[in-house]
Design a protein that fits this description.
The complex is a heterodimer. Chain A is an all-alpha fold. Chain A has one domain (6-257). Chain A has ten helices and two strands, in the order ααββαααααααα. In chain A, helix 2 packs antiparallel against helix 3 (56-87), helix 2 runs parallel beside helix 5 (100-130) and helix 3 packs parallel to helix 6. Chain B contains nine helices and twelve strands. The chains are: A mainly alpha, B alpha/beta.
Chain lengths: 263, 284
């Protein structure tokens, strides 16, 4: 038997996380199906075009893909980790030779997989039921891949950091979900961002979700739509820079505040 | 290196409360050592310092020759040699017993075989049952299985039988003895004095963050030489007398009654009597 490494244990933890995820009906429904239900509702209610060649569904799918990064990373972890802390899972792990990094590798695998499944489900449902157009150029797909990697990492790290905020596992969802929902409204997921009040746009611009949605729009909407953005263009460089800053801040916050047991 | 645990001058305060106040103890290899004490005596803090969960303020601590407060990679190879069974955990409800135990085996350099461990804790019938379907006692056995899967030299058992029925406790005691017979040293904390008496080679009584006494269960608090309580019925009245020479007293009573002494009993102080006297009595 070879000596276990942080990576080998991390991969094992990833497998275990996915197994547990699939066995919890609530997590599968809440994390993966809920965005599809939202897409069905919004796609059916707002069937109008918002610009030439851009339906609301097209706009909404971009926003929901950005939200998907927040749901599967930030929201999922910031609710799940406090529960694991309450159940004693974390303390038990702390008492074994498992390196801390393996635990986070496992979580990252879970987030990556659930995020990818979510994006694929949203795209499939969008194309099949709501006539959403997929990007046609390789550059746009590359941009999407880069956005998913950076955005999802940022969201994961912030979820781990924020997992220290809820006082108990039972209360975690009540603390975390409103944060996500308010940000979704402010960031132009449910409404067209440029139609929102100026102050709301200003607040949203502080947080990464606004930039993730804008980045997703730059992938899924025609470039002609860029002039309807608040800045008049996609601001791709600024988008990536701001998400990266949040990633670094989140990393520092997570490392400094992570607790293996409840005080 | 025969001392598995050695502690000297251990201190830990929370604000102005001294949780551990100059504690010292040594535990030999192959011992079952029980730590007794009321809630708030400093038991949990001491054990958590030994387990590396908590930092100390001062004092010397060596566990398997290693300072548990050491951070980083060295700590991981030390953790490879110890097994911790915590109080009341309730995790991994969506995994089967076999999945959980096999998974934890992957953390260790030289784990035991998962199925062997499951058999050892008596969960073979439940190997494919989900964690959340287990009863309290079965759940505790799973905790033990996860604690010993790494083939530890030292096992921490924190109130392992709380909530067990008497039969399950007896079965659990057999398991603990078996682990010791396989060569492990065991540090047990418990609220059950009969458990300490049945299992422990030595017990330490701790109060106000200090060790009051370390002894074998039958010697603790001068128990072996304490006065015996002789009681019998004399007409309407139940008589009791404490005596250093109970045999003499019984002989005398035999002559007095001219045969059987009604409702005769001779009792030595139980470990619980001695313990309560130490905790509540003159040692305050």
């Amino acid at each position: 038997m070879s000596k276990p490494t942080a990576l080998s244990i991390g991969l094992e933890r990833g497998k275990l996380e996915i197994k547990q995820f699939m066995r919890q009906r609530e997590s599968v429904v809440f994390t993966l199906l809920f965005p599809l239900i939202l897409l069905a509702i919004f796609g059916s209610v707002f069937s109008n075009s918002i610009a030439k060649g851009v339906t609301f569904s097209q706009y909404f799918v971009a926003g929901m893909i950005a939200s998907g990064m927040v749901n599967t990373g930030f929201q999922q972890l910031a609710i799940m980790i406090p529960m694991e802390r309450d159940f004693g899972t974390l303390k038990r792990l702390r008492g074994t030779p498992m390196p801390a990094s393996s635990y986070f590798i496992g979580k990252a695998i879970l987030v990556t997989l659930s995020m990818l499944v979510q994006v694929l489900l949203l795209l499939a449902a969008g194309v099949i039921f709501f006539g959403v157009n997929l990007p046609t150029s390789a550059n746009k797909w590359l941009l999407l891949a880069a956005l998913l990697v950076l955005g999802s990492t940022c969201s994961t790290v912030l979820g781990i950091a924020f997992s220290n905020v809820p006082k108990s596992g039972r209360g975690a969802s009540a603390v975390v979900s409103p944060v996500v929902i308010v940000l979704q409204f402010f960031s132009g997921v449910f409404f067209i961002f440029s139609d929102l009040p100026h102050w709301m746009q200003q607040v949203a611009a502080i947080f990464p979700l606004k930039w993730m949605t804008q980045g997703a729009r730059s992938v899924f909407l025609p470039d002609s739509f860029a002039q309807r953005e608040v800045a008049g263009n996609w601001e791709t460089g600024r988008t990536f820079a701001i998400i990266a800053v949040w990633l670094v801040l989140g990393l520092i916050w997570a490392i400094r505040s992570f607790k293996w047991e409840r005080d | 290196m025969s001392k598995v645990i050695s502690v000297a001058g251990l201190r830990k305060s929370y604000g102005s409360t001294k949780a551990v106040d100059g504690l010292a103890l040594e535990i030999e290899q192959g011992e079952i050592f029980a730590l007794l004490g009321p809630n708030g005596a400093g038991k949990t803090t001491t054990v958590e310092i030994l387990e590396g969960f908590r930092d100390r303020d001062s004092g010397e601590v060596k566990v398997l020759g290693f300072d548990p407060a050491t951070k980083g990679r060295a700590g991981q190879s030390w953790r490879d040699r110890i097994g911790i069974v915590l109080q009341s955990t309730n995790d991994a409800g969506d995994l089967t017993v076999l999945e959980s135990v096999s998974h934890f085996a992957k953390y260790y350099d030289n784990p035991k075989d998962a199925r062997d461990v499951i058999e050892l804790v008596g969960l073979t019938d439940k190997a494919d049952a989900l964690g959340r379907t287990l009863s309290g006692g079965q759940r505790r056995r799973l905790d033990v299985a996860l604690g010993i899967i790494g083939n530890p030299e030292l096992i921490f058992l924190d109130e392992p039988t709380t909530g067990f029925d008497p039969e399950a406790r007896r079965a659990f005691w057999l398991l603990v003895r078996k682990l010791r017979d396989e060569g492990a040293t065991i540090l047990l904390t418990t609220h059950y004095l009969d458990e300490a008496e049945a299992l422990a080679d030595r017990v330490a009584v701790i109060n106000h963050g200090q060790i009051i006494e370390i002894s074998t269960p039958d010697q603790l608090g001068g128990r072996a030489t304490s006065l015996a309580t002789v009681s019998w019925r004399d007409g309407q009245q139940l008589q009791t007398e404490k005596s250093a020479n109970p045999t003499e007293l019984v002989k005398k009573l035999g002559q007095q009654f001219g045969g059987e002494v009604p409702e005769l009993s001779v009792k030595r102080a139980s470990l619980e009597d001695i313990y309560l006297e130490m905790i509540c009595g003159t040692y305050e």
